[in-house]
Amino acid sequence: MTATVPPGRPTGPASPAGRVELPPGATPGDPRFVNEDLLPVPLAGRRWTTYNFAALWVGMAHNIPSWMLASGLVALGMDWKQAVLTIALANVVVLFPMLLTGHAGPKYGIPFPVLARASFGLRGANLPALVRAGVACAWFGIQTWIGGQGVFVLLDKVFGGGWADVPRVGGQPWTLWLCFVLFWALELAIIYRGMEALRRFENWAAPFVIVGALVLLGWVAAKAGGLGPLLDQPSKLGWGADFWPVFFPALMGMIAFWATLSLNIPDFTRFGAGQRSQVLGQSLGLPTTMTLFALLSVLVTSGSQAVYGAPVWDPVALAAKTDNVFGLLFALVTVLVATLSVNIAANVVSPAYDLANLAPRLIDFRTGALITGVVGVLVMPWKLTATPELYIFTWLGLVGGLLGTVAGILIADYWLVRRTVLDLAGLYRADGPYWYRRGWNPAAVLAFAVGGVLAVGGSHSAPGTGPFPEDGLIPVLKPLSDYGWAVGLAAALLLYTALMKRGGAGRRSARSS
Question: What segment(s) does the record annotate as region Disordered (predicted)?
Fold first, then answer.
């Protein structure tokens, strides 16, 4: 049975590679749904190569929070083999929805919120866009706080302790707030220059951060007397009954770490020279570099346990243990580059487009980036990374469940309902095929609600470790909470596909307005 909503025809000429652009003079003019940043990238502007996508992922993967993910698993009781296996498997899993949603970028040149219009409707697309923007703003705050904190710790060592011995504001030294604000301003200054500046920055930042991580590994290995003590730290969980209750929620947390990008990856792939560039670049860049970085992270954390008697899962705190001024300055620069690299690409680009989609007449890409910066401060990100339990299980688990639901709807609509065929001009017109009911597709809203409840309804916390009841928000759903991302994606994908193919909530089609 075919979809109730006709898939439409690609608007404009298609290149031999199957890429589509708007014909000359066919720019949609409805200011409610169009501005310069939301329009499709012309074919001439789609020139990111395999290296650009691989470098993008290398730059994003090699950052302090992803280091804290891997070393946090060691802190939770895994040995290095268990931690690396968990992260490698998670990144192979999340690569598939990444490639599926990324396909629309090189083909149509559209960002994530415009792609979401095909499934949620021209107005309804603001629902997933704002969910994604809210998550990105929180992530921006987390990364900025970690980066500013890293600069503060290392400068304190450089200045011999006087940097921190100052009056406190809001419970923190005012110099820490200064580092935070300066780091925040530097990030927004780079992204304000646009996507081409980001591409150039990622190209050289990626190899620099790899070198920094290898230097830190060499230093810890030397202190531990070689790599042997790093690899000998045993698992506190074993491979039996104690391991699996930690493994599955940790796996979902690792998937959730990049589940954000599995939604808005079209924001980047829209600049791709073709499908080969984005597929090869992402396949080479994401699982390989995340696994390599995970290996470096757990080796260094295991080494810190051998040297200091307890795992030091924060690389900044570990680097601060050296008294070598040159080493401290090198670590400081590495922290700056690594955090800038991921935060700008992963957490500013998406909400900038998402907020522009909310009010195209008032918000462009640069204004959206500034709003992201403000919201990222207001969420008080320092609380989210206080412990590995809160960071991995509560924050990432909750986020992953909601984002998996949106990913399921996008994949179902683009691949199963429309077979990758979109009416490009119709994505910008209220009289086009994606208007549904007053701009909303009830099938997508219902699938999002059902998938979201199943994914996060059972969220629970151990006493004193998180914000949720011990028995779960909805106790009957508690067994599903450890698999939130997978549950949300599968439930939303199946329900949305069934509704659209049966003609239920999605009956209004291109012929209704």
Answer: 1-31
Position 492 scores a pLDDT of 96
Structure-token match 């199943």, residue found: 454
If we measure between CA atoms, which residue out of 372, 440, 452, 391 comes closest to residue 125?
A: 440
Position 183 confidence tier, pLDDT thresholds 50, 70, 90: confident
Helix 349-358, helix 126-158: angle, nearest 10: 140
Residue 428 has a pLDDT of 92
What's at 348, amino acid-wise? V
CATH class of the domain comprising 33-386: mainly alpha
Report how far residue 110's alpha carbon sits from residue 397's, in angstroms, rounded to the nearest whole number. Answer: 29
Residue pair 394/466 in contact (Cβ under 8 Å)? The answer is yes
Q: What angle do CA 52, 56, 62 make, to 5 degrees?
A: 145
CA-based nearest residue to 456, from 241, 257, 249: 249
Amino acid at 293: F
Q: Residue 66: which of 303, 391, 345, 377 has the closest Cα?
A: 391
Give the C-alpha separation, 399 to 403, whole Å.
6
Whole-number percent of the chain with pLDDT over 70: 85
**Contact (CB, 8 A) for 214 and 296:** yes
Instruction: Spell out the domain ranges in the chain.
Output: 33-386
The answer on pLDDT for 377 being more than 60 is: yes
Query: What whole-number distance in Å separates Cα of residue 425 and Cα of residue 428?
Result: 6
Average pLDDT taken over every residue of the chain: 80
Quick: pLDDT tens for 410-449. Answer: 999 999 999 999 999 999 999 889 999 999 999 999 999 9
CB 410 within 8 A of CB 263: yes
> Is pTM beyond 0.85 here?
no
Say how far apart CA 326 and CA 406 lie, in whole Å.
46
Residue 213 to residue 473: CA distance in whole angstroms: 40
Per-residue pLDDT, 329: 75
As a whole number, mean pLDDT of residues 67-81 equals 76
Contact 192, 369 (CB under 8 A): yes
Q: Which of 494, 499, 368, 445 is nearest to 124 (CA)?
A: 445
DSSP string for residues in 250-284 = HHHHHHHHHHHHHHHTHHHHTTBS-HHHHHHHHHH
- DSSP string covering 142-204: HHHHHHHHHHHHHHHHHTTTTTT-S-EETTEEHHHHHHHHHHHHHHHHHHTT-HHHHHHHHHH
